[in-house]
Amino acid sequence: MLADDGNKIFSYAQEESEEVLDNNSIERCNSLKEGIEKAQIIVAPIPFSSNGETINTPFSKEKINIEDLLKSHKSKMLIAGNINPEIKEKLDKEYLDVIDVMKREELAILNTIATAEGTIKVAIENTDEILQGKRILILGFGRVAKIVANKFSMLSANVTCSARKISDLAWIKAYGYDAININDMIYDLKDFDIIINTVPQVIIGERELKHMDPNVLLIDLASAPGGIDSKMAINMGLKFVWALALPRKSCTKFICKIY
User: Where are the alpha helices (DSSP H) in 154-251?
Assistant: First the structure.
């Protein structure tokens, strides 16, 4: 899009992107250093990193260390999304301006719509029954969880949401969903057909997994390390899907249409 608008674009670690390869006006760089030296503005992925050490490169086999990006010039602007606070603090010291686009409230809210619809797609693809009447538990009640709960309830699924804060539990009931305190939910886990996590820290481990229906579908929407112990779930024979980057995978033109 930037190239089509007449900007001079340089690309690195995107050699598996057909759109980049097909656009002759985009100059492909042989190294990160070359790209940084030529550009005034650096655009990085959303999320910026999944492990805190390397930058996400979904269209490349190249591993870009965050430390290499920190060696840039202070006159550069960096644009990315979902930047870890500790990493952003380091970037702020090295760059003229660091912009986390996911801090824009309107973008973050609208992004949850694509996430919710992508979650429905994952649920349909991994079950052999209709979603109507399914017993669904959503872990957490933040921005993403609210929209996911709404979309599933509109499909006539039986939605339960869990949270720790008393105020969140009250809001869950106010929206018309069943509410469970995360700290007290272990014995209720067996009652659900689908469990969807939105909490960005592990809250479902071996103890919780043992209380689930063996036919349960587990969907984790949180970035690494996620909220569900994926290795343990898989080792126990449970169906687990770590559904990352759903907006990009399920609705690539969503943001463009919104704006």
Answer: 166-174, 206-209, 230-235, 246-250
